[in-house]
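Trying the structure run again after the queue cleared.
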Amino acid sequence: MSEGSRASHFKLTPLMFYVLYFLEVYSQSKSDQLDHMYSLLATGYQNVPLTRAHRIDGEHMSQCHIIRSPPFEDPGVLISTHHVFFVLASYLLDAVAPDYPFNSNGDTLASMLLTIGLERIVEFFAAEKGGGYNQRTLRRTFMRNMQRDWDAYTKSDKVIGVYGGDERNHDPVPLDHIWHSPALEMLRRKGRIPHQSQDWVIVWEGVKIYLHCQHCEGMRDGWAAAGGL
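Done. C-alpha coordinates:
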Protein backbone atom coordinates (compact mmCIF):
# COMPACT_ATOMS: atom_id res chain seq x y z
CA MET A 1 0.00 0.00 0.00
CA SER A 2 1.41 3.45 -0.92
CA GLU A 3 2.06 6.18 1.63
CA GLY A 4 -0.80 8.19 0.13
CA SER A 5 -3.22 5.28 0.45
CA ARG A 6 -2.20 4.70 4.07
CA ALA A 7 -2.69 8.38 4.86
CA SER A 8 -6.11 8.34 3.20
CA HIS A 9 -7.20 5.26 5.15
CA PHE A 10 -5.91 6.77 8.40
CA LYS A 11 -7.95 9.92 7.75
CA LEU A 12 -11.11 8.29 6.42
CA THR A 13 -11.55 5.36 8.80
CA PRO A 14 -12.56 7.27 11.95
CA LEU A 15 -14.71 9.68 9.93
CA MET A 16 -16.54 6.80 8.24
CA PHE A 17 -17.69 5.63 11.66
CA TYR A 18 -19.70 8.85 11.95
CA VAL A 19 -21.35 8.17 8.59
CA LEU A 20 -22.10 4.57 9.55
CA TYR A 21 -23.45 5.67 12.92
CA PHE A 22 -25.79 8.16 11.27
CA LEU A 23 -27.08 5.56 8.79
CA GLU A 24 -27.58 2.97 11.51
CA VAL A 25 -29.47 5.33 13.84
CA TYR A 26 -31.54 6.66 10.96
CA SER A 27 -32.39 3.15 9.76
CA GLN A 28 -33.60 2.23 13.25
CA SER A 29 -35.61 5.46 13.46
CA LYS A 30 -37.31 4.70 10.13
CA SER A 31 -38.13 1.18 11.29
CA ASP A 32 -39.58 2.46 14.57
CA GLN A 33 -41.68 5.05 12.75
CA LEU A 34 -43.02 2.44 10.35
CA ASP A 35 -43.95 0.15 13.26
CA HIS A 36 -45.69 3.04 15.03
CA MET A 37 -47.71 4.08 11.98
CA TYR A 38 -48.66 0.47 11.27
CA SER A 39 -49.90 0.05 14.85
CA LEU A 40 -52.06 3.17 14.42
CA LEU A 41 -53.59 1.62 11.31
CA ALA A 42 -54.21 -1.67 13.10
CA THR A 43 -56.02 0.07 15.97
CA GLY A 44 -58.06 2.36 13.71
CA TYR A 45 -56.40 5.65 14.75
CA GLN A 46 -55.06 6.10 11.23
CA ASN A 47 -57.01 4.97 8.18
CA VAL A 48 -55.52 7.03 5.32
CA PRO A 49 -52.17 6.00 3.78
CA LEU A 50 -49.38 8.54 4.13
CA THR A 51 -48.36 10.44 1.01
CA ARG A 52 -44.78 10.62 -0.23
CA ALA A 53 -44.68 14.31 0.78
CA HIS A 54 -45.62 13.40 4.35
CA ARG A 55 -42.95 10.70 4.38
CA ILE A 56 -40.26 13.10 3.13
CA ASP A 57 -41.20 15.68 5.79
CA GLY A 58 -41.14 13.04 8.53
CA GLU A 59 -37.77 11.68 7.45
CA HIS A 60 -36.32 15.20 7.31
CA MET A 61 -37.45 15.87 10.89
CA SER A 62 -35.98 12.55 12.02
CA GLN A 63 -32.60 13.33 10.46
CA CYS A 64 -32.57 16.83 11.98
CA HIS A 65 -33.15 15.29 15.41
CA ILE A 66 -30.18 12.94 14.92
CA ILE A 67 -27.90 15.74 13.70
CA ARG A 68 -28.80 17.93 16.69
CA SER A 69 -27.68 15.11 19.01
CA PRO A 70 -24.19 13.81 19.93
CA PRO A 71 -21.79 13.46 18.26
CA PHE A 72 -23.02 15.73 15.47
CA GLU A 73 -23.79 18.73 17.69
CA ASP A 74 -20.03 19.33 17.64
CA PRO A 75 -19.41 21.63 14.61
CA GLY A 76 -16.12 19.92 13.75
CA VAL A 77 -17.70 16.46 13.71
CA LEU A 78 -20.66 17.76 11.69
CA ILE A 79 -18.43 19.34 9.05
CA SER A 80 -16.10 16.34 8.76
CA THR A 81 -19.03 13.92 8.49
CA HIS A 82 -20.59 16.16 5.85
CA HIS A 83 -17.36 16.05 3.84
CA VAL A 84 -17.13 12.26 3.98
CA PHE A 85 -20.80 11.88 3.09
CA PHE A 86 -20.35 14.25 0.15
CA VAL A 87 -17.35 12.36 -1.22
CA LEU A 88 -18.99 8.95 -0.64
CA ALA A 89 -22.20 9.99 -2.42
CA SER A 90 -20.26 11.54 -5.31
CA TYR A 91 -18.23 8.36 -5.79
CA LEU A 92 -21.26 6.09 -5.63
CA LEU A 93 -23.19 8.27 -8.09
CA ASP A 94 -20.35 7.94 -10.59
CA ALA A 95 -19.94 4.20 -10.05
CA VAL A 96 -23.51 2.85 -9.91
CA ALA A 97 -24.46 1.18 -13.19
CA PRO A 98 -26.93 3.32 -15.21
CA ASP A 99 -29.06 0.30 -16.10
CA TYR A 100 -29.89 -0.41 -12.47
CA PRO A 101 -33.68 -1.00 -12.02
CA PHE A 102 -34.54 2.49 -10.71
CA ASN A 103 -35.29 5.74 -12.48
CA SER A 104 -31.87 7.27 -11.90
CA ASN A 105 -28.56 6.75 -10.18
CA GLY A 106 -29.79 9.15 -7.50
CA ASP A 107 -32.74 6.88 -6.76
CA THR A 108 -30.40 3.90 -6.65
CA LEU A 109 -28.09 5.53 -4.14
CA ALA A 110 -31.02 6.75 -2.04
CA SER A 111 -32.34 3.19 -1.82
CA MET A 112 -28.88 1.92 -0.88
CA LEU A 113 -28.51 4.43 1.95
CA LEU A 114 -32.01 4.28 3.38
CA THR A 115 -33.59 0.92 2.69
CA ILE A 116 -31.14 -1.83 1.96
CA GLY A 117 -28.46 -1.31 4.58
CA LEU A 118 -24.73 -1.26 5.00
CA GLU A 119 -24.21 -4.90 4.02
CA ARG A 120 -25.14 -4.13 0.41
CA ILE A 121 -22.88 -1.08 0.32
CA VAL A 122 -19.97 -3.30 1.38
CA GLU A 123 -20.92 -5.74 -1.39
CA PHE A 124 -20.94 -2.85 -3.85
CA PHE A 125 -17.38 -1.82 -3.01
CA ALA A 126 -16.25 -5.45 -3.11
CA ALA A 127 -17.69 -5.76 -6.63
CA GLU A 128 -16.01 -2.54 -7.78
CA LYS A 129 -12.64 -3.59 -6.34
CA GLY A 130 -12.63 -6.93 -8.13
CA GLY A 131 -11.39 -7.47 -11.63
CA GLY A 132 -12.32 -9.43 -14.74
CA TYR A 133 -14.70 -12.35 -14.27
CA ASN A 134 -14.64 -11.99 -10.49
CA GLN A 135 -15.82 -8.38 -10.75
CA ARG A 136 -18.67 -9.31 -13.10
CA THR A 137 -19.77 -12.13 -10.78
CA LEU A 138 -19.68 -9.91 -7.69
CA ARG A 139 -21.56 -7.16 -9.52
CA ARG A 140 -24.32 -9.55 -10.64
CA THR A 141 -24.60 -10.87 -7.08
CA PHE A 142 -24.79 -7.34 -5.73
CA MET A 143 -27.49 -6.30 -8.22
CA ARG A 144 -29.53 -9.46 -7.59
CA ASN A 145 -29.36 -9.11 -3.80
CA MET A 146 -30.20 -5.43 -3.94
CA GLN A 147 -33.24 -5.99 -6.15
CA ARG A 148 -34.43 -8.77 -3.85
CA ASP A 149 -34.10 -6.56 -0.79
CA TRP A 150 -35.90 -3.68 -2.49
CA ASP A 151 -38.78 -5.90 -3.60
CA ALA A 152 -39.11 -7.36 -0.11
CA TYR A 153 -39.27 -3.87 1.40
CA THR A 154 -41.83 -2.38 -1.00
CA LYS A 155 -44.08 -5.47 -0.87
CA SER A 156 -44.09 -5.85 2.91
CA ASP A 157 -47.46 -5.61 4.66
CA LYS A 158 -46.27 -2.70 6.79
CA VAL A 159 -45.09 -0.58 3.86
CA ILE A 160 -48.23 -1.25 1.82
CA GLY A 161 -50.43 -0.60 4.84
CA VAL A 162 -48.77 2.68 5.82
CA TYR A 163 -48.01 4.09 2.36
CA GLY A 164 -50.75 2.44 0.30
CA GLY A 165 -50.56 0.40 -2.87
CA ASP A 166 -49.36 3.23 -5.15
CA GLU A 167 -45.76 2.34 -6.00
CA ARG A 168 -44.90 6.03 -6.40
CA ASN A 169 -45.36 6.43 -2.65
CA HIS A 170 -42.61 3.83 -2.14
CA ASP A 171 -40.00 5.65 -4.25
CA PRO A 172 -36.83 6.63 -2.38
CA VAL A 173 -36.68 10.18 -1.08
CA PRO A 174 -34.58 12.57 -3.22
CA LEU A 175 -30.88 11.98 -2.72
CA ASP A 176 -30.22 15.50 -1.43
CA HIS A 177 -32.74 14.85 1.38
CA ILE A 178 -30.47 12.17 2.86
CA TRP A 179 -28.09 13.86 5.31
CA HIS A 180 -27.31 16.66 2.81
CA SER A 181 -30.32 18.94 3.31
CA PRO A 182 -30.64 18.47 7.11
CA ALA A 183 -26.87 18.91 7.57
CA LEU A 184 -26.82 22.14 5.55
CA GLU A 185 -29.74 23.42 7.62
CA MET A 186 -27.74 22.81 10.79
CA LEU A 187 -24.53 24.30 9.35
CA ARG A 188 -26.42 27.48 8.46
CA ARG A 189 -27.81 27.72 11.98
CA LYS A 190 -24.28 27.41 13.37
CA GLY A 191 -22.93 30.04 10.96
CA ARG A 192 -20.61 27.52 9.29
CA ILE A 193 -21.45 28.26 5.64
CA PRO A 194 -18.98 28.82 4.10
CA HIS A 195 -16.22 27.12 6.11
CA GLN A 196 -12.56 26.26 5.78
CA SER A 197 -11.73 22.72 4.72
CA GLN A 198 -9.49 21.06 7.30
CA ASP A 199 -9.97 17.47 6.09
CA TRP A 200 -7.02 16.71 3.82
CA VAL A 201 -4.22 14.21 3.31
CA ILE A 202 -0.85 14.53 1.56
CA VAL A 203 -0.69 11.80 -1.08
CA TRP A 204 2.37 12.54 -3.22
CA GLU A 205 5.27 15.03 -2.99
CA GLY A 206 3.31 17.44 -0.81
CA VAL A 207 0.14 17.39 -2.94
CA LYS A 208 -3.00 17.66 -0.79
CA ILE A 209 -6.29 15.88 -1.49
CA TYR A 210 -9.20 17.53 0.29
CA LEU A 211 -12.35 15.94 1.60
CA HIS A 212 -14.76 18.73 0.91
CA CYS A 213 -18.25 19.96 0.10
CA GLN A 214 -19.56 22.70 -2.16
CA HIS A 215 -19.32 25.23 0.69
CA CYS A 216 -15.62 24.74 1.43
CA GLU A 217 -12.97 27.43 1.12
CA GLY A 218 -9.18 27.36 1.33
CA MET A 219 -8.33 24.53 -1.07
CA ARG A 220 -5.99 26.48 -3.36
CA ASP A 221 -3.01 24.34 -2.41
CA GLY A 222 -4.62 21.00 -3.27
CA TRP A 223 -7.24 18.99 -5.16
CA ALA A 224 -10.82 18.08 -4.35
CA ALA A 225 -11.47 14.40 -3.67
CA ALA A 226 -14.73 14.30 -5.67
CA GLY A 227 -16.95 16.33 -7.95
CA GLY A 228 -20.20 18.00 -6.96
CA LEU A 229 -23.52 16.27 -6.44
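The radius of gyration is 19 Å. Worth checking whether this holds up in the mutant runs.
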